[in-house]
Specification:
The structure holds three protein chains of three kinds.
Chain A lengths: L1 E5 L2 E5 L5 H7 L23 E4 L6 E2 L10 E3 L3 H17 L15 H8 L16 E2 L5 E4 L8 H9 L5 E4 L6 E4 L15 H5 L5 E3 L12 E6 L8 E7 L2 E7 L12 H4 L14 E4 L2 E4 L2 H12 L10 E5 L5 H14 L4 E4 L7 H10 L7 H6 L2 E5 L8 H8 L7 E6 L11 E4 L5 H14 L7 H15 L3 H13 L3 E5 L1 H4 L4 H13 L3 E4 L6 H6 L13 E7 L5 H7 L5 E5 L4 H5 L2 E4 L8 E4 L5 E4 L12 H12 L7 H4 L12
Parallel strand pairs in A: 1-5, 16-17, 16-23, 18-19, 18-21, 19-20, 21-22, 23-24, 24-25
Antiparallel strand pairs in A: 1-2, 3-4, 3-5, 6-7, 7-10, 8-9, 11-12, 12-13, 14-15, 14-25, 26-27
Helix pairs in contact in A: 7-20, 8-20, 12-13, 12-14, 12-16
Chain B lengths: L4 E6 L5 H7 L4 H8 L1 E2 L15 E7 L2 E3 H13 E7 L1 H5 L6 H4 L1 H11 L18 E5 L9 E3 L6 H12 L15
Parallel strand pairs in B: 1-2, 1-3, 3-5, 5-7
Antiparallel strand pairs in B: 4-6
Chain C lengths: L4 E4 L10 E6 L5 E7 L6 H4 L8 H4 L8 H15 L6 H33 L10 H7 L1 H22 L8 E2 L2 E2 L5 H9 L1 H21 L1 H6 L6 E6 L11 E5 L5 E5 L4 H4 E4 L8 E4 L9 E2 L1 H8 L6 H12 L12 H21 L18 E8 L2 E9 L5 E7 L6 H15 L7 H13 L4 H4 L9 E5 L5 E6 L3
Parallel strand pairs in C: 6-11
Antiparallel strand pairs in C: 1-2, 2-3, 4-5, 6-7, 7-8, 9-10, 12-13, 13-14, 15-16
Helix pairs in contact in C: 4-5, 4-6, 4-8, 4-13, 5-6, 6-8, 8-13, 11-13, 12-13, 14-15
Classes of the chains: A alpha/beta, B alpha/beta, C alpha+beta.
């Protein structure tokens, strides 16, 4: 531990802490601009300068390691003058027009810094060069006139996202934020995650959708969970007058630490589907508004007589965007009360069934969690394109690559992360099991793991031939895995959907041999909960006389629509109109993601609560309430303990709150 | 003791700061009791008293030679000069003209604009002002008190006026300081 | 008698800068008078490259008296540019803010800018011929006047967070809904605002009765008249087609504001930075027209609110149903519009949609260009933007209210100078009358040149050699 004195106060901090961190621990505020709690200290703006006894000049507290017996003063006249001077230089460097800027009046860290120093004017004159505005990006605009070169966006794009699109070109007064080698943002390698905008302290980066929606102080802010995929990032949603104006990552969320992808940050704001606000019942071939009673009794009178009729009774599908509360009720009504054997999720278990089955065989969970992924020094990603789905998980890998983490990709096709991979193993379709066996064999052949070297060599050759991958590549991969301290296998739909159960078994065997952890990415927000509830079998319409789809705010796929086109009776509970609702005999209006409260289990088994941001229109009910009302209509009693039901069977990742 | 004399004027601004001054509503009666309001753009005295005033208040930046003359005259004739509003303090929105150039701006307005008929040209009568770079007031004359804001809040303006009218220097803190 | 030039600079109790030069001939009569607007700022150029959604926040800095006009015109231009018409509740809310602005701007103009001339007299002592003098001469009326302006300003503040340069409109709608308690606050002040406006109207009518000679010789001349109307030619200030009538009252055009370039053009004179709009079909200068309260009430055939409509009937009777040409009747028309605006506030607040939260259309469908038109207190305001598909502006054209009145103001100055200056002796009250000619139009010269300026008032009477014969100063 280090002991130092700040402004006369004794402070004790662990070794390695900076003076800024020590001051924070002591409750002493030092102003900063380029510093950000989620980014490594940078020391670029010099606003945090402090006096250190014995030092020749003022020192930047954000990068200065606290030293034993250091005497620091943060509020002397010299320090205050320095802060004003730093701000003066920043203002004179570019063109800061506060009057009309989107963040003026409280939301600009630069302006607030100046006001905190009591600055009522600029002693120096701006240079009046006309800096460019880059409006090429779909989601945000960059105004270089407002940039203070704090590098936060550059650092975020690298340290948090691992994309390294942003950089600063030239030096000194010529410095300029650029994308890639100097192309417009909209034409660059940017993946539209928006993390740069979230960290920008001025109005240099502005989200188009948030511009002029109001001040931060005007906003309702709700912490919730993104339901865009199974990663389950924490979000902070801004709303005003019952509309969402901005989605930010929750910097304190354990899963994502503030990082989001476009699916969570921007795409929900593009919602333009027609909203369903009233129950509807088909009369004479046309959907007409109806009461909840009418609609529910119409469903009940159709499905109740079909109870227990396997094959020609009721089939039911639920979206895995629904919260656990709703999924549990859904299962109890259709698999329980109506004894249907065709009750499953829209995902049909393609991302979870194989792993769930293995968990059942083992009798316990076997997967690691995201902390392991974040700490891994050798990640093997099989059957997934982390540039297309589960993007934030991809960020967790990409950002560690410059630090030495190796990436090995096993796929039959191309993925967006191919350029970053140390080894690419392009397996012929359906041969993934052989890839794993081949790597295992190579580990033994290399002597990195115990085993019969001779048979290993033969197995390696066989595997290479079967997969079409060169032996050398398998060996190289094995070498990296075998020597890694914390190797990890992540796998996705490419492994779990079409392959035989043996594939997953060989993957798990390989992971044991390699002392590696394993984690499947699952699919949508509540894939794992659905798996826990056994809503993971393939869906087949086979003479079923009625089909119920708990769609929620999901978008039905073309394939699903086609398969249900000839359903004799179709009931759908949905938030938005679609071809599916148009086809339905009964439609029940339900809450969309921001209007609901409910629980989600992410890919690592973390149980999280999504909170209500908006009030649903009159007449709209939550997914759980709609199902509860249906249960009542059918005369079923249901158990509302959705949480206990999550432990009904072993799951690949342990489920815990 | 005679009431302190206050004189105001506007240069290259939008009049918003003076409107914010009027936004002190009925408190203007109190100010009129405390101080002798001399020339302003909304009264009929045309310039600050030659014998001098105590407080001069200028809104707007300096964008042409006439603005310069007014600024110099006010500085000469007042004891304390107040720069009121972002245009006077920083240059403000009109200073965006510096980024594109005066010639280009004139050409766009008088020749290229879509509604100007075929006989457009840039006016140049000597009765008109000569354009200069858009500047903050302090680039032209020394300023004693800066009250930024676009416009400054009426409560802040009332505070500044009543302090000055009572012979005190206003201190902009506790949320009175704003740049927006 | 040697020819001489009189100069009035600056004109006070107007927004912005103007300078008047009066050229005398050898016979000691006024040959020609000019109103010079002598400053320029360049918004049309420096807004190139900015984003379309910033324009409702940059353009209000054109004018601090009518920032809401620019705020809303810019939002409307953005609506058109990006094909995102606002939901009905948003249009109601924007109009509500606009009415607040009309009330405060017109109210302030009558009582505080023009008022001193009418209430204290053209020839009153310049040291007290102002709002402070009004407070001293008639504190009760002054208090009412301040309260009327405050009422309008508070409506703006309730909706947009502040009175000047509010944060409210964005392309596609507005960012804040009206709360029930806020609606109640606005409703509560309505009756008092109407009462004050009616006091103003009776002051104006009394003054007109007592000063009929001035009314009838003070800058009375024919022009066309131009302003927005409802589909059946009722007075309209927020959204509607534009109607142009000739001096006899015959309709020349009724068109969608978006097509303004088909009908009007701007003429440039060397002696003013303010351009001169005119009706293309009649050419320059036959095609000149007046906007603002006088223009709008001449163009309108009725007003859809009862009290204002009654008053309009009185107005129409002033010239037997023909367009009213007297410059001084601008003051009367301005008060009638104030009455309409207050009554319109009640209509808006009673609308079932006024509390709705359906206030923003976030869809975007790029149209290439967009025009936003609104009736600002001083006249028709046109914002026209061209942009790239990414939303960055490539070109901006602004035709700002007072600009349309430029010829009329110049002509009014010329007319008043010729009418009242009958010899080389020039006295102070005369100069004030020349300024009052400009004041009647309530010009917003910051707006119209997207510029402003001001100067001290000195009148030099010079001989043809430039020697000063007589100097008159208008300061204490």
């Amino acid at each position: 531990m280090i002991n130092l004195i700040i402004d006369g106060k004794n402070v004790e901090v662990p070794n390695g802490a900076t003076v800024l961190q020590a001051a924070e621990a002591a409750g002493i505020h030092i102003p900063t601009l380029c510093n950000h709690p989620s980014l490594k200290p940078f020391g670029g703006c010099r606003l945090c300068l402090v006096e250190v006894e014995g030092a020749r000049t003022l020192q930047p507290s954000c990068t200065l390691p606290a030293g034993n017996n250091m005497v620091v003063r943060t509020n002397t006249d010299k320090v205050k003058a320095a802060r004003k001077f730093v701000l003066t230089l920043i203002f004179s460097d570019r063109n800061h027009f506060c009057p009309f800027c989107q963040v003026t009046g409280g939301d600009c860290e630069l302006q607030n810094s100046a006001l905190n120093e009591g600055m009522a004017n600029w002693p120096y004159i701006p240079n009046w060069n006309n800096y460019p505005v880059d409006a090429s990006h779909k989601y945000f605009v960059l105004d270089n006139n407002r940039c203070i070169l704090c590098h936060r966006c550059v650092r975020a794009c690298g340290e948090l996202v691992g994309n390294f699109t942003l950089g600063i070109e030239e030096r000194g007064a010529q410095s300029m934020l650029v994308a890639d080698t100097g192309v417009p943002l909209g034409e660059s390698s940017c993946v539209q995650c928006g993390t740069c905008v979230a960290v920008c302290p001025t109005g240099a980066l502005i989200e188009r959708s948030y511009a002029y929606q109001g001040h931060e102080a005007d906003m309702d802010k709700v912490q919730s969970i993104c339901v865009g995929c199974s990663v389950g990032c924490g979000v902070t949603v801004y709303a005003r007058d019952n509309r969402i104006v901005r989605i930010l990552g929750d910097w304190d969320a354990p899963v994502n630490g503030g990082v989001l992808c476009k699916t969570g940050r921007f795409i929900p704001l593009e919602e333009d589907r027609e909203r369903i606000t009233s129950p509807m019942v088909k009369k004479d071939g046309k959907l007409e508004p109806a009461t909840w009673e009418e609609a529910l009794s119409k469903i009940a009178e159709k499905v109740k007589p079909l109870a227990g009729m396997n094959g020609s009774g009721v089939a039911a599908l639920a979206s895995t965007r629904l919260p656990a509360e709703a999924l549990s009720l859904f299962k109890q009504i259709f698999a329980g009360g109506l004894h249907s054997s065709m009750v499953t999720s829209i995902e049909e278990g393609t991302t979870t069934a194989a792993a769930s089955s293995l968990a059942e065989t083992l009798g316990k969970p076997f997967e690691a969690n995201l902390d392991a992924l974040k700490a891994s020094d050798c990640v093997v990603a099989a059957g997934v394109d982390l540039a297309e789905s589960h993007l934030v998980a991809g960020f967790m890998v990409k950002r560690n690559l410059p630090g030495g983490t190796r990436l090995i990709l096993i796929n039959s096709g191309e993925t967006g992360l191919d350029p970053q991979a140390s080894v690419l193993l392009k397996a012929a379709q359906g041969t993934d099991a052989d890839v794993f066996k081949g790597i295992a064999a190579a580990l033994v052949k290399l002597g990195l793991r115990d085993g019969d070297g001779v048979s290993a060599a033969a197995e390696l050759t066989r595997a290479a031939q079967a997969t079409g991958i060169a032996e050398d590549d398998l060996v190289e991969a094995a070498g990296l895995i075998g020597l890694a301290e914390q190797p990890m296998f992540v796998y996705g739909k490419g492994i779990t959907a079409k392959n035989s159960p043996q594939t997953l078994a060989s993957l798990v065997e390989l992971s044991k041999l390699a002392d590696a952890s394993v984690l499947s990415l699952k699919g949508e927000a509540n894939s794992l909960a659905a798996a826990a509830y056994q809503l993971d079998k393939p869906f087949e319409v086979n003479g079923h006389q009625a089909v119920f789809v708990a769609l929620g705010d999901d978008t039905p796929s073309q394939r699903l629509i086609q398969r249900l086109e000839n359903a004799p009776f179709l009931a759908v509970q949905a938030s938005y109109a679609s071809r599916l609702t148009a086809m339905a005999d009964v439609v029940l209006p339900v809450e969309m993601w921001a209007e609901q409260e409910g629980h989600y289990v992410n890919l690592e088994g973390r149980l999280q609560k999504a909170n209500r941001v908006l009030t649903a229109p009159d007449g709209v009910r939550s997914n759980a309430d709609a199902l509860m009302a249906l249960a009542e209509q059918l005369g079923f009693t249901v158990d509302e303990d959705w949480q206990a039901a999550l432990s009904a069977r072993p799951t690949p990742a342990a489920i815990a709150a | 003791m005679a009431k302190p004399k206050i004189s105001t004027d506007w240069l290259c601004g939008c009049a918003g700061c003076h409107m914010s001054l009027l936004d002190i509503d009925e408190r203007i009666i109190k100010i009129a009791e405390l101080a002798d309001i001399r020339s302003t753009p909304v009264t009929d005295l045309k310039e600050p008293d030659e014998a001098g005033v105590d407080v001069g208040i200028l809104e707007g930046g300096v964008n042409n030679t006439y603005n310069e003359e007014v600024a110099h005259k006010m500085r000469k004739r007042c004891k304390l000069l107040v720069a009121l509003g972002d245009c006077a303090v920083f240059g403000g929105v009109p200073a965006m003209r510096n980024l594109v150039g005066t010639e280009e701006a004139l050409r766009r307005a008088y020749i290229e604009a879509e509604s100007v008929d075929d006989e457009g040209f840039i006016p140049s009568d000597p009765e008109l002002g000569v354009m200069t770079n858009a500047r903050a007031l302090q680039e032209v004359v020394p300023v004693d008190i800066f009250v930024p804001g676009c416009p400054p809040d009426p409560d802040t303006i009332y505070y500044v006026l009543s302090e000055l009218a009572q012979g005190r220097m206003p201190k902009l803190d506790d949320g009175k300081l704003q740049w927006h | 008698m040697p020819a001489q030039k009189l100069t009035i600079e600056p004109v006070t109790r107007i927004e912005g800068h103007a300078k008047v030069t009066i050229h005398m001939n050898d016979a000691g009569k006024v040959e020609r008078a000019y109103m010079h607007v002598n400053e320029f700022r360049g918004f049309e150029k420096f807004c190139e490259g900015r984003m379309y959604f910033e324009m409702p926040y940059i353009t209000p800095r054109i004018c601090g008296i009518c920032p809401v006009s620019h705020h809303l015109a810019a939002a409307k231009a953005g609506d058109a540019l990006m094909g995102c018409p606002p939901p009905r509740p948003a249009s109601l809310l924007r109009e509500l803010m606009h009415m607040g602005q009309v009330i405060q701007s017109h109210g302030m103009h009558f009582f505080e800018l023009a008022g001193p001339d009418l209430l204290l007299g053209f020839d009153a002592d310049p040291a007290t011929r102002n709002v402070v003098g009004l407070i001293q001469a008639n504190p009760d009326l002054a208090t009412k006047a301040v309260a009327l302006r405050k009422y309008g300003q508070e409506i703006i503040k309730i909706l947009g967070g502040r009175r000047i340069h509010p944060l409210f409109a964005i392309p596609g709608g507005v960012n804040k809904a009206l709360k029930p308690e806020e609606r109640d606050v606005i409703l509560a002040g309505l009756d008092e605002a109407i009462a004050t406006t009616q006091v103003g109207i009776s002051i104006m009518r009394d003054w007109a009765e007592k000063n009929m000679e001035d009314i009838n010789k003070f800058a009375v001349f024919p022009t066309g008249y131009f302003g927005m109307v409802t589909p059946d030619n009722g007075l309209e200030l927020y959204d509607g087609q534009i109607r142009l009538i000739d001096q006899t009252g015959e309709q020349l055009e009724k068109f969608d504001g978006a097509n303004y370039l088909d009908h009007i053009a701007e003429h440039v004179e060397n002696w003013s930075y303010l351009k001169f709009p005119y009706y293309k079909k009649l050419g320059w200068p036959q095609g000149v027209y007046r906007v603002g309260p006088l223009g709008r009430l001449n163009v309108a055939e009725k007003i859809d609110t009862p009290l204002a409509n009654e008053e309009l009937k009185n107005f129409k009777a002033l010239n037997n149903g023909n367009p009213v040409e007297n410059t001084l009747y601008y003051h009367y028309a301005r008060l009638i519009e104030t009455l309409f605006a207050i009554e319109r506030v009640r209509v808006l607040l009673d609308d079932p949609d006024i509390l709705s939260t359906d206030i923003l259309n976030t869809q975007r469908s790029f149209q290439g260009q967009g025009v936003g038109v609104i009736e600002a207190p001083r006249g028709t305001l046109i914002h026209h933007y061209w942009a790239e598909p990414n939303g960055q502006l490539t070109r901006v054209n602004l035709i700002v209210s007072t600009g349309h009145n430029n010829w009329a103001m110049s002509n009014a100055v010329d007319s008043v100078a010729k009418t009242y200056i009958t010899g080389p002796e020039v006295h102070e009250g005369l100069l004030n009358r020349v300024e009052a000619a400009i004041r009647a139009y309530d010009p917003c010269l910051s707006c119209s040149t997207h510029a402003v300026g001001q100067m001290p008032m000195v009148v030099d009477v010079v001989d043809p050699q430039g020697n000063t014969i007589q100097t008159l100063r208008r300061n204490a």
